[in-house]
Amino acid sequence: MDSYPLFKVRVSTPVLSLHAATDELLDRLSGVVRAGKMHAEPSPYDDPISFYEPDPDLRVAKWLRSMWRGRGTVEAEKWRLYFVVMVDGEPIGMQDVWGVEFATFGTVTSFSWLSSDHRGRGYGQEMRTAMLHLAFEGLGAKEATSDAFVDNQGSNAISRNLGYEPNGADWATRQGEPVLLNRWRLTRSTWEKHRRDDIQLHNIEACHAFLPLI
């Protein structure tokens, strides 16, 4: 869609790339959602989320509706960018970044998932690294936050590896049951100490034109 430049935003690393989540890419990724390959044990997702829908077709429909709603919300109070993770031309998951009162606080947070067919290869950390480069280098973020259930060893390890510091704890529900969350915080100064020079931003000017960053 040439008329919506945010769909042209992309982040590339030597390993993978983040492509703005167009309908075409979401349709290609829908088979992973329909097959339930975004699930993990223990589940990393808090409520509410479409992934807990047991009917495969309805799960895809709910997932797509959530993407469309989120894509359409671009306000000073809240905006969110959805990216499909691509490896060798194949969509393998998603990596999102969003800001809440970004112009005031400069804080972003993130959400991601990866197909079970592609876990254990370092993609989770690489896609978070790409997102952080977009946030700090491309959008001018001051800090990035993350949270994960205490039993989500993969996400918590990625946060530690990338320099996030513990930032307290909180509660959330997982399929109706209360579970403790670890909260994490990464400052711009810490990110800059470990920033990489092999990550490329493409069409980032669209973010400055269409997102309320200042």
TrEMBL record:
It comes from the Bacteria. Residues 31-197 form the N-acetyltransferase domain. GO terms for molecular function: protein N-terminal-serine acetyltransferase activity; protein-N-terminal-alanine acetyltransferase activity. PROSITE patterns: GNAT. Pfam families: Acetyltransf_3. InterPro entries: Acyl_CoA_acyltransferase, GNAT_dom, Ribosomal_N-acetyltransferase. Coiled coil: none annotated. Keywords: Transferase. GO terms for cellular component: cytoplasm. This is RimJ/RimL family protein N-acetyltransferase. It comes from Kribbella solani.
